[in-house]
Design goal:
This protein is of the alpha/beta class. It contains 16 helices and 14 strands. The chain folds into four domains: about 110 residues, GTPase HflX, N-terminal domain (Rossmann fold), CATH 3.40.50.11060; about 70 residues, no CATH class; about 170 residues, 3-Layer(aba) Sandwich (Rossmann fold), CATH 3.40.50.300; about 60 residues, Alpha-Beta Plaits. Helix content is about 45%, strand content about 20%.
């Protein structure tokens, strides 16, 4: 295994990145290749060239036009490239036509992201989810995939992950053995296996209904896992790369004395996340749908933070999180290069909490804001309880504000303010009388 890893390190593919931008779409040309570079490097590629073109319309044959495709072929020779990666989504016909011209493998953005997910998947559920997404994406592109794999097979590659490099890992190699007629059968099998796992996850979520649930969401590499580790000592894998975490981790967090809530980390989002991934990871993302509160972690040090926020909000809406309360958390304030970026975000999101998950800066402020949501709006209560029932008095002192307290005939009559969401917990302690004065 160690020898295989060493081989993979040595045989990094040399990639040319391509972005075709429709005219009149602002400065997206620079942004596209910046993120595509990070994605390609996360997949293990060495970026040797970047190629951008503004187009009035998409060429149906080659996407960028025959002349630009021929220029790409020249760059392939000049830079000794192994793969061309488009920031756009291409049709199977466009990929085949381009490969005829450039004579090397051509990938689009979705295929690159799927490949990264394939290399990151560790648990059985994540592997099944990625396999399903890859098969559903590649089904109409099987002829193109076959040509990739045939070329690799001729070179004698056999090891999983090392065979075809970027775009052919995970499910890719299996397609040498699965003909077109069996792909649908495999998709059905994967869905059946995932359905069994999904039902178990739903049961787990149902079993936790009594507890307050907070889910961490955000753009990939925004610092979600770092925050989970800092708040709960979870020891979740953290690395400064895109999609380092694919599996949901749930840990107990105590933001205040006597309070215990469930805190979950989720897979990171990215711009134009392939809808196949969103669909296949739906069960994993159920943590966000069923949460009582979302912590939207934002990398405040990133110049494109607002675009990342929009991408996250788009996915949240797609999976059905509308109506779930959200706290925006401006992370990485310790890494700011320009304070004006943070000031703009604070103006746009005046209720946001600014923190550094890495250093622990202002995590107390975050805990206080979460506690406000946990408690809900304060209500005025009149509570009567037997003096022997000390749990009621202790609970009100720990979680509320005592306004008045009178002792009479073995009972204690208390006027207090308490968070509305904590009324069910108070009722479980069985006070003699409980009257809510306002809501």
């Amino acid at each position: 295994m160690e020898k295989l890893r060493e081989t993979l390190r040595v045989k990094k593919e040399r990639a040319i990145l391509v972005a075709a931008i429709r005219r009149g779409r602002g400065r997206d040309d620079a942004d596209n290749l910046q993120e595509l570079t990070a994605l390609a490097q996360s997949a293990g590629a060495i970026v040797v060239d970047r190629f951008q073109q503004k187009v009035n319309r998409i060429n149906p044959a080659t996407y960028i036009g025959k002349g630009k495709a021929n220029q790409l072929a020249e760059r392939v020779t000049r830079f000794d490239a192994d793969v061309i990666i488009f920031d756009n989504d291409l049709s199977p016909a466009q990929i085949r036509e381009l490969e005829e011209i450039v004579k090397i493998k051509v990938l689009d953005r979705s295929e690159l992201i799927l490949d990264i997910f394939a290399t990151r998947a560790k648990t059985r559920q994540a592997r099944l989810q990625v396999s399903l997404a890859q098969l559903e994406y590649t089904y109409p592109r099987l002829a193109k995939m076959w040509s990739h794999l045939d070329t690799v097979a001729a070179a004698g590659g056999t090891a999983a992950g090392a065979v075809g490099g970027i775009g052919t890992r995970g499910t890719g190699e299996q397609q040498l053995e699965i003909d077109r007629r069996l792909v649908n059968k495999r998709i059905t099998e994967l869905k059946r296996e995932l359905e069994i796992i999904d039902k178990r996850r739903i049961r787990e979520i149902d079993a936790r209904k009594a507890m307050f649930k907070v889910c961490i969401v955000g753009y990939t590499n925004a610092g979600k896992s770092t925050l989970l580790n800092k708040l709960t000592n979870a020891d979740v894998f953290v690395e400064d790369r895109l999609f380092a975490t694919l599996d949901t981790r749930t840990k107990k967090w105590k933001p205040d004395r006597g309070v215990e809530i469930l805190l979950s980390d989720t897979v990171g989002f990215v711009k134009n996340l392939p809808h196949q991934l969103v669909a296949s990871f739906k069960a994993t993302l159920e943590e966000a749908v069923n949460a009582d509160l979302l912590l939207h972690i934002i990398d405040a040090s990133n110049e494109d933070a607002q675009k990342q926020i929009n991408s996250v909000n788009k996915v949240l809406a797609e999976i059905g999180c509308k109506g779930v309360p959200v706290i925006e958390v401006l992370n990485k304030v310790d890494a700011l290069k320009d304070i004006s970026n943070l000031e703009i975000l604070q103006t746009l999101y005046p209720d946001a909490v600014s923190i550094s998950a890495k250093t622990g800066m202002d995590l107390d402020s975050l805990a206080n804001v979460v506690m406000q949501k946990y408690k809900g709006n304060d209500v005025l209560l009149h509570v009567s309880s037997k003096q022997s029932n000390g749990k009621v008095q202790s609970f009100l002192r720990a979680h509320g504000t005592i306004i008045d307290e009178q002792y009479e005939d073995g009972f204690v009559n208390i006027e207090a303010r308490l968070g509305k969401n904590q009324l069910p917990e108070l009722k479980k302690l069985r006070p003699h009388k409980l009257k809510v004065m306002n809501t």
